Amino acid sequence: MQLNVPTLVLVDIYILALVGILMLHAWRRGRREPTLGYLAAALLLGVLGTVLVSALRGVGMDVVPLVLGNMVLHLSAAMTWTALRVFTGRQPHLPGICAGAAIWALLCLNPAFYESLTVRVAASSLITVSYTGLGAFELWRSRKNLEVAYLPALVLTLFHMAFYLVRIVVDRGMPFDHALASSGDGASFFSLLIFETLLYAIGIAFVTLAMVKERAELKFRAAAYCDPLTGVGNRRAFMTTGEYLVESCEHRKEPVALLLCDLDHFKRLNDNYGHASGDEALVAFTRIAVGSMRKQDVFGRIGGEEFACLLADADDEAGAQVAERIRREFAELPFQAPGELSVSIGIVSSKEGGYDLFNLLALADDALYAAKDKGRNRIQRYPAD
After folding, report:
1. Out of 280, 305, 306, 332, which one is annotated catalytic?
2. Can you tell me the mean pLDDT for 221-232?
3. Overall fold of domain 235-381
């Protein structure tokens, strides 16, 4: 298959410019997400570099396309690396961004390097390989913390790096003006280079935008399921995760226990000592309760001062032991008003309430009110006497 080089160059410029503008628009609309901003800069620098390399060649200004044009193209590769680096949570590295362009400029000061097309091709490809490899490394070392589908971006980046490694070995170089004038086999690798770079630019823009969107959705979802004060799950999160836990315990024929906790005299605490003290009490209780939970248990704030603990593989006796530990540790906390902190806890197990989370909550609520009626600062199993 023969690819017309001038046509490919024009298509390359047009598509890179279009994708770059769209990425710039996504950056502005996406609350200035830095990853998209750096990627937009990479694409638009790629357009500028391609124009400089192609438009001024053979008109008596070869120093501009050879030196300045390739410097801009290396800055484009550096920006792509920076986009991936910023996406993984690291800061841009300005010396690293400028290193490729600076190295190219210094190499071009050497007449032997400047006059050797083969050496220039190898050096330019090696700089591209370095930046592409750094981008792949950023994704790989942060893979456990990304929580998004990073593999498409990693595979695409590694393929692009491998292509330029092959270029170092097989491409002896062809003068750009000769390549533009040629449409036969002599320009086949050069046209393939343009084609691959174009596909890579489109692909990396698409997968990066997808990763940014996926991470934003995860953040919104986490915010929707998280209590902002205590940092634990809210009522929606507790019900969703709790139902799954109850079903799992029923399937394994394991008991499950529910603890419904309510801080005593919370309104009086807020009225007498201010809402800051109330918030402090909520956070302190959360810390104690979470410290008493196992990894498989579910805990959440389901109301203003009301919390729920769902214990896997635990009967009411085991639930009572956990509840008593929470009640005692909370009551013993040093607070500005001694004796003000206490909690009442209602307990029910699947033996009494079955494997129905709503029914367990209702029965635990009955036990909780019984604990309140008996003087607060106590635990009460269901059924209450």
Report:
1. 305
2. 88
3. Alpha-Beta Plaits (3.30.70)
